[in-house]
């Protein structure tokens, strides 16, 4: 695992804040899955109330076998399940908060309940069966509202993964989160390294940009049996450090190419010079689009001996990177003909201060030769004070605008938050949609 300065902060702190990159957010509470009571927990409560002294111990014994969180079916809602988070407390436990996309930063709304006179703490939610997310617990949390928290780094030091759940997501820098996946969650089959297939090559380098006036780290993927100066489809990906590790795109490409889902392709992953530069450059800045079209593409062709099929280059990213991908395609449709945006920050304003700048540009422009694969999490419902709407709402707005203008749009919503766990599972499907031979036949 590479070390990613600042990336782990995006992955964890900004996951909690839905990755909006601002000082605080206001949860859209009406969109949250409403907690309800578990029949299993109700049975335990009744046993404890009837003075069954072994009820809690027996309960924990069953949980050790079945794992946590435990999932109960809902006959009245076929596509949903009742999911209960559990914490095994002790005499020093005063409260426990479930840190997850389900409640965003509404810590008070994510407090677990204690069954009186037991060490059982619980919180149940109704979830769609394609739920996929990371979570942690904060025992004895300060319960200070997020916007009033003076030091969130220190508060994070108290977060704990679920000791009853062996499935984790590794953010690097010794940060592990527990993983919840229900049966219909998107499959991660394309993300697993296989020893029985050929692997491509990933090389790190640096691009010196006269347009941006700085140097950026890049990583170039070439497929198995790569032949210099042959003609290859090109994939350009923002936030290259995280998309070569947390979202293992090189491995995804290996698997897709081997299975014949996409043709052999070259991929360039672009890093960021600094967090501040990322916030400015990826916010539909003309200089970023020009850098990609006028410097990056020629650099791939000349410095790396790759002949690029420039018409219809796939450009991809998540969050601000998803916004930057769509903006670069809007600015340079002669180069970037296919957009793969995961949880794009389409709510963002530009110089005029009005939200959803990009959607308004597409409304006002003629139809361009672009195809889109857009996806967003149903739990990405936070909105920024004075800069509404949420990521979910703005993604739906952009989808509707593009469809109304006649664009080809493959759009998906998943029961997830703003997180790499969700993006890694679906990135391959986006590539199949945009790069497969079936898609690209006349």
What does this structure look like?
Helix 6 (249-258) packs parallel to helix 12 (420-435). It is built from 13 helices and 18 strands. Strands 9-10-13-12-15-16-17-18 form an eight-stranded mixed β-sheet, with helices on both faces. It has two domains: 7-181, Immunoglobulins (Immunoglobulin-like, Sandwich); 189-440, Alpha/Beta hydrolase fold, catalytic domain (Rossmann fold, 3-Layer(aba) Sandwich), CATH 3.40.50.1820. Mean pLDDT is 88; it is low at 1-31. By secondary structure, it is of the alpha/beta class. Helix 10 links the parallel strand 16 and strand 17 (371-377). It has helices spanning 7-16, 39-49, 55-66, 152-156, 240-243, 249-258, 275-281, 286-303, 320-331, 357-364, 391-404, 420-435, 437-440, and strands spanning 70-73, 80-88, 96-99, 113-114, 120-128, 132-139, 168-172, 175-181, 201-209, 214-222, 231-232, 234-237, 266-270, 307-308, 314-318, 338-342, 371-377, 408-414. It is elongated and about 75 Å long.
Give a topology summary:
Blueprint: H1 7-16, H2 39-49, H3 55-66, E1 70-73, E2 80-88, E3 96-99, E4 113-114, E5 120-128, E6 132-139, H4 152-156, E7 168-172, E8 175-181, E9 201-209, E10 214-222, E11 231-232, E12 234-237, H5 240-243, H6 249-258, E13 266-270, H7 275-281, H8 286-303, E14 307-308, E15 314-318, H9 320-331, E16 338-342, H10 357-364, E17 371-377, H11 391-404, E18 408-414, H12 420-435, H13 437-440
Parallel strand pairs: 11-14, 12-13, 12-15, 15-16, 16-17, 17-18
Antiparallel strand pairs: 1-2, 2-5, 3-6, 4-5, 6-8, 7-8, 9-10, 10-13
Helix pairs in contact: 6-12, 8-9, 10-11
